Amino acid sequence: MKNGFSNMERAEVLTQALPYIKRYTGKTVVIKYGGNAMINETLKQQVMEDIVLLWLIGVKVVLVHGGGPEINDLMGRLGKKAEFVDGLRVTDKETVDIVQMVLAGKVNKTLVNLLEMKGGKAIGLSGMDGRLIEARIKDERLGFVGEITKIHIKPVEDLLENGYIPVISTVGCDKQGNTYNINGDTAAAQVAGALGAERLIMMTDIAGILRDKDDPDSLIPEITINEAERLYDEGIISGGMIPKVDCCIEAINNGVKNVIIMDGTVPHSILMELLTDEGAGTMVTGVKK
Description:
two-stranded antiparallel sheet, 10 helices, alpha/beta, 289 residues, eight-stranded mixed sheet
């Protein structure tokens, strides 16, 4: 016995996971990764292990990542103060250069390297590679914050077809050569939709949609997009959860089977969601018939 588990118990766990492995083998799962799960080094290692395990059992995993804290850190070191309007980063020309350096450079390549160290095969892309994410100015007040106009998904499909884990940083571009800072949740939803993904996993720092925001035990395990509209009206979906659920609905309307909003700070939450009976977080699904 090692780490408190006998070989028999380990075998039993694997047996119970078998139906879920069969369900997801050969299917595409998009994971939106950022926030505290990215800052904490131990959690980061565990997330990369989870992704490589899924890849090894034949799941086509696409990782879409943010990097807000790292952007803030570099801006601070350069003496530049971060500004936000309606939760979105005001991005002037200097700031968009910083965003590109941090997301498409440091963060993206660090995650690719970690996945390779864990035994996976990964290739990093930004939304500028292959014009993956085309965008235009979302709001003049925000500067180079982009609204997605088109997803050119073939570079991602080619990587998946050749057995790689695509790691996508959310920097977009337009035909005039401008670079845009793209909201990570929105980018993940549109990439997942373009791929017709089986599932989109949105990693946050709360358990999911709570009926009472101050009570973690009030988690709503599953809602349809119809029920989401009612929860908006009742004020249960509010604040920062509104844009996240909007992205879930957009993904489903674009062909994703279902979307999970879950707490990415819980160790191995991805595996709990995909490979166990219990699951994790709130599942958003299409309209019930």
